[in-house]
Amino acid sequence: RLDQALRAARRAGYPYLIMDGTLIPIDRVAADRPYYSGKHKKHGMNIQLLATPDGTPLWISGSLPGSTHDLTAARIWGILRRLQASGLVTLADKAYAGAGGHVLVPYKGKGKPQSQKDANAAHARLRGPGERANAQLKTWRILRKLRCCPRRAGQLVKAVLVLQLREARRKRLSAVARWLLTCTRYSTARVDTDQHDDGDNSGHGSTKQHSVTLSDSNRGIS
Hints:
extended, alpha/beta, single chain
């Protein structure tokens, strides 16, 4: 599935992809230590996501315990290896530092020169849509906090992604249909207006011709 998504990205000609990790909150379980994320200060499941430059989710991973670091999760799912093989440039946050030259992360450290600050600002602007893709997934109530077995988190997220992409496709098709309907109505109204104008012009022409005929006949009588 990941290989298929990367092939589709190459065919689409995306200049880069966006990689980001997120935490799906869960209820505490008996063996809760592996599920506790020190970064988010809560229990959950780690999910990895690849998105297109406009923020459309392209691929989503299965779930790992929340204590798993994002870089470790990316290695476990084979994301880094496949990205390198595909030759696609990927933008990610500082959590993926050390992922390889094909994964671009912001500069770290304090007292950075202005050039690095500008590069980080540009990196953040390009990476922003990918983070919004994760935020869109969290709008589904079922993912705000899982009350089922944590191991089902990956299946639920993938199912939600399918529904979200289908809904987005339906909205795009509806927008296209509305645009076509508007164009059709405009074209029909334009044709009706032109026909009405042609009718008025022909009426004026016949009246003028009739006036000329009457003038000619009156001139003959006189």
